[in-house]
């Protein structure tokens, strides 16, 4: 009986993870139980240490285990351009592209009046402080192309433009392999506005 209760607790905790439903949680729980004890201990220690050691970079707000993070302290990166993103996962997505070699600024959210999130609830003040040094020449706004992301980008753009810093927005459009017939009007409009000469 105690074993069944222990499995139920494990399933319950695993099912709280994003994208993990009850059945997946059960499969994971049974898999973990079947592992050698040493592997289970290593998994538990890795989870605990990850949570304990990882924190936000004091400069950009990305996840790190050093101060500042590896990106902010890299002398090979351009320090005159900053890409503004919603959360650390977006930094990871941008880094996978391998074409961007500047710095980042993680907002940890977007302006969303419906959810009670205003400009003071995300890291806009810290961005403005970084810009006051005069070293940054361009800010690339890379928030999502949804209502909140667009509102956040517009708000930040209005704050930055009077400072004489170039403000750009990542292009949005039809994804590779997408079909126009199934693309929404806003995405089509953005794609059309961002058209380039061939």
Overall structural domain count? 2
Characterize the main sheet.
Answer: 4 strands, parallel
> Low-confidence parts, pLDDT < 50 over ≥5 residues?
none
Q: Predict the CATH topology of the largest domain.
A: Dna Topoisomerase Vi A Subunit, Chain: A, domain 2
- Secondary-structure element pattern, one letter each: HHHEEEHEHEHEH
How many DSSP helices?
Answer: 7
Q: Indicate the percent of residues in helices.
A: 40-55%
* Gyration radius over CA: 21 Å
How many beta-strand runs? 6
SS-based class: alpha/beta
From the spread of the alpha carbons, the general shape counts as: globular
Q: Termini distance?
A: 70 Å
Write the layout of secondary structure elements.
Blueprint: H1 2-14, H2 22-34, H3 37-53, E1 55-56, E2 63-64, E3 81-85, H4 88-97, E4 103-106, H5 124-131, E5 138-141, H6 147-160, E6 166-169, H7 185-193
Parallel strand pairs: 3-4, 3-5, 5-6
Antiparallel strand pairs: 1-2
Helix pairs in contact: 1-2
